[in-house]
Amino acid sequence: MGLDFIARTLRTSSILLLIFLPFGFYYLGVFPTLAVFSGGVWGLINLIFLSQLVRTVIRPGKIDVKRAVGLGVIKFPLLYLAGYFLVSVDRFDPLLLLAGFSVFPAVMLLKSLGRVILGMDNEGRSQKHLQETL
User: Fold this and answer.
1) pLDDT at residue number 33
2) Calpha distance 94→106 (Å, rounded)
3) 67, 87, 93, 128: least surrounded by Cβ within 10 Å?
4) Which of 121, 113, 104 is closest to 50 using CA atoms?
């Protein structure tokens, strides 16, 4: 799995949340759907900032300290404060928020299992695939 795995998983999770939105409004109601959607969006934003922070800090060459500090200030105090306010909203059930937070890890697990089951990371299969594309 390459560095684009996180980007593809973020994209798939976003699409899944958008597909869930109209069905959730119809079957669950407004506030339960908004709780799941808000939790999912918070999880996606959290992972975007985390991946950017890791890519900024762990890299060959010189580290951009200003960018790393800026990402750290946004991610840790502000994003977690926003998560606290999401949990403290009386209209949002904490279990539904947790379901929204869990969308990204679930998609990541399913994508990884799919790659293992299909054998996409096997050495022989990737070599054969490379030869077919050339």
Assistant:
1) 97
2) 18
3) 128
4) 104
C-alpha angle 96/98/104, rounded to 5°?
115
Q: Tell me which of 59 and 46 has the higher pLDDT.
A: 46
* DSSP letter string, 47-96: HHHHHHHHHHHSSSS---HHHHHHHHHIIIIIIHHHHHHHHH-TTS-HHH
- The domain spans of the chain are 4-133
Give me the pLDDT at residue 37, please.
97
Q: How much of the chain is in helix, strand and coil states, percent to nearest 5?
A: 85, 0, 15
Q: Rounded CA gap, 93 and 96, in Å?
A: 5
**Residue 94: both structure tokens together:** 């904490």
Average per-residue pLDDT for the chain: 89
Judged by average pLDDT, the poorest of 68-72, 87-91, 97-101, 117-121 is 117-121
